[in-house]
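Collaborator request, handled under Task 6.
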Amino acid sequence: MYDRVLVPTDGSDPATEAADHGFDLAEEHGASVHLLYVVEADYQGTVEAYGEPGGMATFTESILPALEAEGEEAAENLEARAAQRDIETTTEVRSGRAREDIVRYAEEEAIDLIVMGTHGRSGVERLLLGSVTERVLRDSTVPVLVVRASEEGGEESDEPADEREGNDADDN
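Structure tokens returned to the collaborator:
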């Protein structure tokens, strides 16, 4: 049913929790996992609009490489988690708009399922910050599994997500 699972990440605990669920599904279905980190192009616009003269050059020369390195590190951490479970991964770090690039990547790579984390924001916080997950849910033609962050903030575990304490997956 699932041959190619996309796990977008921003390096956060909710993204790591979602990745663990994606890895569980990949193991169950013998699927490969695609890890995607998008360096937000919106940061570039902010520097260009509010920065000093030559701000875009400063962004490109110093900030962009740091954000790309952060993306590489986040992806490498998930690659290591997948490797412990013998799950084949493909990794990409790209610059753009996460909500658009996740949908585009899923289409380009014939992804069967997108697994994403959510911080569970609501009200004004969500209105002000927006929701990449919500936009992907609305715009994607690929099924999307949304994993809500645990209150503990995503403790690491070697156990599959469906075997962790407090998971009622078998009760359904």
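The cover message to the collaborator said: "The helical segments are 13-29, 42-50, 55-84, 98-108, 123-129, 132-139. Residues 153-158, 164-172 have pLDDT under 50 and may be disordered. Please let us know whether this matches your experimental observations."
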